[in-house]
Every structure is written in structure tokens, then in C-alpha cells.
Amino acid sequence: MRFLDLALAAVIGLSSLALMASWGPAGNNAGAARLREEDSLRTDLESLLVTPGAVWLQQATLQEICAKVGSLSNQSVVYSASVDSSQCPLAAPETGPVASISLMLPTRNVTLEAWEAAPA
Amino acid sequence: MGSRAGVGATLAAAVLFSSLLVSNALVVSGSQQQLALTEQSNAESYLAAGASALAVSAGLSLLDSLESHLAATLLSCGNASSAVEAFLDGLSTVVGYDHVSARGSFAEGQNESLAGNMVSLAPYSGWQAGDLDINFSVVVRGGVPGLGVTYSSNQSHPVYLPVDLGRLEAFCSDSLEADESALLGSGGSLCNATEAGNVLTAQTAAEAALGQLMGLGLNATWTVSQPGQCQVKVTVEVFQSGTDGPAGPFTVSAEEAATVQSPAERPNGSS
User: Fold this and answer.
1) Cα distance from B254 to chain A (closest Cα, Å)?
2) Domain boundaries in chain A?
3) In a structure prediction context, what are the per-residue pLDDT tens digits for chain A, which is 120 residues long?
4) How many CA atoms lie within 13 A of B186 on its CB side?
5) Interface residues on A facing B, Cβ-Cβ cutoff 8 A
């Protein structure tokens, strides 16, 4: 009988631990953190609409745009862009969430992208 | 005793782990709520960023359309401003992308100041005295299905193109008047193509030099009517070239024509 009681207690304990391990807040917390990161990246991208600005993005060549957004990249954030279907060469692999903003211009569509730089 | 201890241990384990499970459930529930709030906040900022980009896109699209129209149209000096304003008032566009759409329209810029420069449209944001001032209105709507998040805004921004239609009109009419006066006051016969041509060539050169000082160009052409009529039709075209527009440099042109006839001139020497 004692053996059965111990076994039952063990089953209850192990089941509970397994349930808590599989159903925890970690996934939700990670998801929320990812969304906040994406939000921050999007704010960074909006600043590109001011500097260098939409008029410049309309007139510049793809190479000029790639050079410009590349120069704005830093240790924290990597910027990139695409004009219609042509993409800037990836300066760094996309890690984590990617935020993007698109300008639907008369002569071209310009999409600005940002993602967190990989830790050094 | 042994069985009681065993049951007690089992019950204790059940109570303990149940408590842990309830606590875990509370923590998970809290994190789920936090995630839901973050999703909503993220959706709101996503819509706001999209709205911002589309509003800029609409404004730039309208400026490009206006620039194309000015570059492709030979305006009439007599009503250049009103013709451009009429075109302006009918200008609108709709752009949309990924759950957000924006409808932009232009109207003549009013005299009162309009706040809210759209700095993303620099250097064409704001109003400049003497230039083509425009009131840019944009209505943006958007929503993320499933999250119950919507976005709505009505905005007005002052924008402009560096085109001085008033100066163009004035220079054009002044030049035409000067040509008429030069022909009538030259003493030469309007029936003589060579004499008329000499007068107008000299006058045009003087007007062009004056225009250059104002950043304007001028061309004049003329035709002398058939013998017996003694009329000269003068056409003056003025233009503002190299104007920096959002789609690149462009030229705005306007022309006016006038027929000059000396009231004292009679063919065949008759009085």
C-alpha cells in the first residue's frame, strides 16, 4: 500500500512538473519581447522618412539608397532597403524580428527594413 | 498507520502540486494578457507607421503629378495662375498597402498660415512667399482584422512647388507690351518685314537680358502679314527652366500673342 501511495504521489508530482514545464509564460514573454523589439525598429525606420526623406528616396538610385541606409546601420540596428524587386546586398544576416515600411511612390516602391544586429 | 501515512503523503503531494499548478496558471494568464496588450500596441504602431508612409506617398504622388502637368503644358500668360489653380483643385490620389489606405488631395494654398509641415516632403514642405502654395489634405484609414485595432486620421499640410506664376505672367505681358510699343514707336513700317524684324530682334534681346536677371527665359517669334495688311503678329514665350521638382528639374512655360497694326499705316501710300 505504501508503495502505491508513493507511486501515486510521484505520478502527481511528475505530471504537475511536466505540465508546468510545457505550459509556462516563457513563450508569451518571448513573443511580447519580440513585438516590442519590432515596434522599436519601426520607430527607427520612420526617422528615415524624415532623413534622408521621401524626395531623396524617390530620386536616388538603388546603389545610393543602399549606401545611405548602410551608413546609418550601427551596432544595434541594421538597415536595408529594396526598390521595386531589387534588394540591397545584405550587410548582415537578418536576425530576430524585421520591421519594414513601404513608400508607394509614383515611379517606384521603396521598402525600408530594419533588424537587430547580431551580438558581436 | 502505514496506510494513513501513505494517504497523507499522497494528499499532501496533490495539494502542493495543485497549488503550484494554480500559481503557474495565474502567471501564464498574466503573460497572455501582457502579450495581448503588446500585440494591440504593436498593431497600433504598425498602422500609424503605415499611415505615415502612405500619407507621404500620396503627397509626393500629387506633387509629381503637378510637376508633370506644368512641364507638359504651355500655359497662357493671361490666365496661367487660374488655370494651374483649377488643375490643382481637381488633383487627388489614393494609395494603399497592407490594411492601410490614404486619399490625398490638393487645393490652392490659402493666405492664412497652415501648421503641420510634413517634413518628410522636404524641401517642398511649408509655404514660400511667391511660389505655388498648396494645401495638401490626406485622409488615412486602416485596421488589423482580428485584433479590433483601427486607425483613422484627417491631416492638412502646407506644401509648395518653387514656381512663381505671378512673376511669369507679369514678365510675359510686360514683354509683349514692350514689343508692341517698340514696333509702334520705331517709325518703321509694319508692312516691312525686315524693319519689323530688326526692331523685334533688338527688343527681344533686351527683354531676354532683363528676364535673365529674374531667372526667367524669353523667346519671341513674329510674322508679318501678307502685303496689304501691314500687321505683325508677335508671340512671346516666357519660361522658368531648371526648376527643382520632386521628380527632377523641369521647365514651366507660358506664352501670349498679339497682333500689332499701326492705325496710321495704310498700304499703297493712301492716307
Assistant:
1) 26
2) 25-116
3) 678 877 887 888 888 888 888 888 888 888 898 899 899 999 988 888 888 899 999 999 999 999 999 888 888 888 999 999 899 987 667 777 789 999 998 889 999 999 888 776
4) 26
5) 1-2, 4-6, 8-10, 12-13, 15-17, 19-20, 23-25, 28-29, 31-32, 35-36, 38-39, 42-43, 45-46, 49-50, 53-55, 58-59, 101-107
CB count in 10 Å sphere of residue B29: 12
How many whole angstroms from its chain centre is CA B171?
24
Residue B164, SS3? Answer: coil
Beta-carbon contacts of residue A110 (< 8 Å; ≥ 6 apart): A57, A58, A65, A81, A82, A83, A102, A103
Give strand ranges (E) for B112-247: 132-144, 149-161, 217-224, 231-245
User: What's the distance, Cα to Cα, between the start and end of chain A in Å?
Assistant: 59
Q: Global pTM?
A: 0.85
Query: Half-sphere exposure of B265 toward its Cβ, with a 13 Å CA cutoff?
Result: 19
The residues facing B107 across adjacent strands are B135
